Amino acid sequence: MCLIKFLKSEAELARVCRAHQVGNKEDLFVAIGFGKIDAEDVVRSVRVRSNSDAPANETEVAVTTEPVPEFKEGAIERLVRKVQRKDHGGIRVNGSDEVLVRYAKCCNPVTGDAIIGFITRGRGVTVHRRECVKAFDSDPERRVEVSWGTHSKITRPVSLRVRTENEPGILANVTQAFSTQHINISEANCRASKDGLACNVFTFMADDLTQLKALMRELDKVRGVVQVERV
To answer: Are 128 and 161 in contact (CB under 8 A)?
Structure first.
């Protein structure tokens, strides 16, 4: 059986899911990525032929160990690797770094942040900052402990809201603080208000929490800066 036929065969999918005690193929893929099910066991389950003589009322379908000749092993292995691919961001889930990981756009965690993960159906584990409001709204049943790997090295987008006095030259002084920290601003939204202040939101790429905190301290030193906060 080729990979496409396998994925389109409800009977085969149901058989393999039953064999690994999961409800559907999405749960199967998440379990592989999460490390709860060995990928090689799934490959072996797919490669065996169902015993067509098994009684229809049996809960489990008996299988033989005879490989299906036309099964393309390389295709299913590619599928497993896609589900189980190693995350280059250095996130470890319950001690394993072989889990598919996504970063929540609502809070954009960077290396060094306190983080929490949530198993997302069909998408592996989504990582939030622990103080993220949306993280608290997620199903606690899907919560999982995650941590940064020892050698995590990843650049992530971050936004800072910088409130300043609305005076000539203040914006130049603020952007100079970014240059001092060797950080390039990718987007800026600046708006003056009637109370004599200005609200400036800067988006940029940060290497880690240490770099981000150093930038925030540098911005606090700028004369005319009233408040610096992470968005």
So the answer is: no
Q: Domain check: are 78 and 138 in the same one?
A: no
pLDDT at 156 > cutoff 80: yes
Question: Which tens digits make up the pLDDT trace of 24-74?
Answer: 777 777 677 666 677 677 777 776 654 444 444 444 444 444 444 443 445
State phi, psi for 159 to the nearest 5 degrees. Answer: -125, 135
Question: What's the predicted TM-score (pTM) here?
Answer: 0.61
What is d(CA 75, CA 80) in angstroms, rounded to the nearest whole number? 9
Tokens for 13?
């999918």
Residue 178 and residue 216: Cα distance in Å, rounded?
9
Say which residue the tokens 């800066």 belong to: 225
Question: Residue by residue, what is the 3-state secondary structure of 101-124?
Answer: EEECCCCCCCCCCCEEEEEECCCE
**Which of residues 41, 68, 84 is at a domain's end?**
84
Report the DSSP beta bridge partners of residue 127: 103, 117
Instruction: Give me the mean pLDDT over the 159-183 stretch.
Output: 95
Pick the closest to residue 109 from 64, 164, 154 (CA basis): 154
Judgement on whether residues 200 and 215 belong to the same structural domain of the protein? yes
Domain that holds residue 72: 3-84
